Amino acid sequence: GDEGRHQFTLKTAKETLTGKYGEDSKLIYDLKDQGGELLSLRYDLTVPFARYLAMNKVTNIKRYHIAKVYRRDNPAMTRGRYREFYQCDFDIAGQYDPMIPDAECLKIVHEILSELELGDFRIKVNDRRILDGMFAVCGVPDDKFRTICSTVDKLDKMSWEDVRSEMVKEKGLSEEAADQIGQYVSLQGGMDLAERLLQDAKMSQSKQACAGLTDMKQLFSYLQLFQVTDKVVFDLSLARGLDYYTGVIYEAILTQTGPVPVAAAQNGAGEKAEEGVSVGSVAGGGRYDGLVGMFDPKGRKVPCVGVSIGIERVFSIMEQKAEASAEKVRTTETQVMVASAQKNLLEERLRLTAELWNAGIKAEVMYKKNPKLLSQLQHCEDSGIPLVAILGEQELKDGVVKLRTVHSREEIDVSRAKLVEEIKRRTSDV
Amino acid sequence: GDEGRHQFTLKTAKETLTGKYGEDSKLIYDLKDQGGELLSLRYDLTVPFARYLAMNKVTNIKRYHIAKVYRRDNPAMTRGRYREFYQCDFDIAGQYDPMIPDAECLKIVHEILSELELGDFRIKVNDRRILDGMFAVCGVPDDKFRTICSTVDKLDKMSWEDVRSEMVKEKGLSEEAADQIGQYVSLQGGMDLAERLLQDAKMSQSKQACAGLTDMKQLFSYLQLFQVTDKVVFDLSLARGLDYYTGVIYEAILTQTGPVPVAAAQNGAGEKAEEGVSVGSVAGGGRYDGLVGMFDPKGRKVPCVGVSIGIERVFSIMEQKAEASAEKVRTTETQVMVASAQKNLLEERLRLTAELWNAGIKAEVMYKKNPKLLSQLQHCEDSGIPLVAILGEQELKDGVVKLRTVHSREEIDVSRAKLVEEIKRRTSDV
Questions:
Q1: Number of domains within chain B
Q2: Of the candidates B83, B100, B84, which has an alpha carbon nearest to the alpha carbon of residue B92?
Q3: pLDDT, tens only, A10-51
Q4: PANTHER family this protein is in (chains A, B) (predicted)?
């Protein structure tokens, strides 16, 4: 449940902490009285990263960062959305030639989503300058760019009719402008589309759009070298709401529906089963060349491009997949359990365990004086430990260990001297 | 500096965040108005862990956790102490036979401190029950146990005279009781000391002390099997202030002084040089069998034992050591830089980089169309990238890559088909 997710929360009700630390309790940090500053929890990892670069005068860096962020949103647990959740960001900061780091970010998203085998996916790409240029040539007033942009951003959840209606009725855009936008945002393609739009009578009037389109061509040429164009689509409807983007923007979505929710399947609710668990966007990012400068006293800019992976959602999909396939998820890295079939061998078990630890083997031993062999084997089955090293009086006398493969139940005698090597050999693929 | 340490802080002044997210700004989490709860930042990882076990009805688990904790202390930056810092905890929860998981915790501390090569260290061990029993037989009133215990805890920083004086003058203990305590807390030893104290006329009157001493003997017998008794000392002066400990307690300290601070060495301040940078305690922990029950509605207990590694301090020592030895700290895991000596080879560099990435090699490429070879090599020198794969027109024609070892400057031609294998071979020890 949600409580489990929030297991190691930073925020803690004060009464949870008091009375646990004795005299050290005075060291507990209350947020309330730290000088009256109005504090917020971080919303993403990008703004803190930009501030860090500015404050430490870092002009180039490439790094990843996995940490929690907080959003005052309505949590949707079944879709893997929480108010407190981990993000995983990768960013490249520095003054470089156009689109090379941008292409690397897309390659990384492609690699991650491919390797995780989450099903088919699509990476939509657009450029803030193309969007702004498009708005300009379609007759959107300058002061409406941002608000119209955030309406366009809803096209992945709303029909064009609803988006159009919001632009015209709520945001006061002319019908003509809205319809022109409608023609552009339906376009999808690759390098060819960028070339076509560079020739487009209206689009080519915008310097901004042309700069964006030229870079988009360049980007696709690098993506070809990286062999990732199979999944990347230049999509003019991709807007992304955040104000800080200045160039290329992108978003990865899973295109397959997830496994059928257990409840729906049990109810035999056929019409629900088709829908499955859609999780939508699993990664997104873009170029933000102005953000670092906003934190620098002298406004010095550091161009940045980055990507954020929604790892909680990724995990949620992987868990659902594992459940659906009834596949046992290995919950341990332990290679071998040191066990005994007879009584009074705790000391021998501990001695062998330490030997294995010292040789770099991940070994476990039951913390019982005389555990039953069956319960030792059962623990290996449950947690996915692949091997059991079994000690008995006879084995000790002969200087051997009975090495059992949990999966096949095969047992062989291995001399004590060869044990480490044998365990390594048998678990090298795990 | 301190600012750099706090790079990715969770707390953020609200104005830092506003104006960056457009319409999404409404999702930013303010701590102030979340229902008027008085919130605190976590002080350690133990209490949140215990609460997690209770709330999720987990009755046995073994896990580590690395995360930030917060203490309203006076930071001492040179000694690696901050108000916001990472802790690294390892805990074993569950109902097991006495002292087996406790011994494993000590083995882990021993292993970590040995492998990190921080210099010689000592792990002091004691037991809350031995302390309480000792206080009882020395005539400390029941209601003074905790406060006297926290005074004893200061023996690592204060002389016995000062500790005695605090007990007698500030805390109102009788001189006789203080002197009796003084005799015990000067004792250090191993299993032999536990045996001797079990025979001690006074100590043996306390049931609690006897239980603690019997377990201490057992603990040392397991520590012998784990071959760690060379560093572990049963020390009756070890108290540890936290209220939640119920059994064995321990603390690891580095016994060597650190390297000479740069400033002192430059000043030729000989008398300071001897002192060096002492960091004191680098790990600590103990058994806390009652904590989980405090969070369980029905008071169900889950016995736990754990250890906390002060990783910030450990890092601070490692950094100082690296500085003192003028040893270059490798700041990257990159195995190879894909470079070129000639112009117009960006596409070939990107193609090869993707090839290497796809084969699982950690490769880097400069994000410039035509970088100078010298600056590519310099980057490898600076960041510790061990290999450079150099492409040129001739190499492309011949289907080879010039593989340069940065350290030795040796260059060999490697056929494109063998490149991955050769890079793996040459970086397998890195």
A1: 2
A2: B100
A3: 444 555 555 555 555 566 555 554 545 556 677 889 888 998
A4: HISTIDINE--TRNA LIGASE, HISTIDYL-TRNA SYNTHETASE
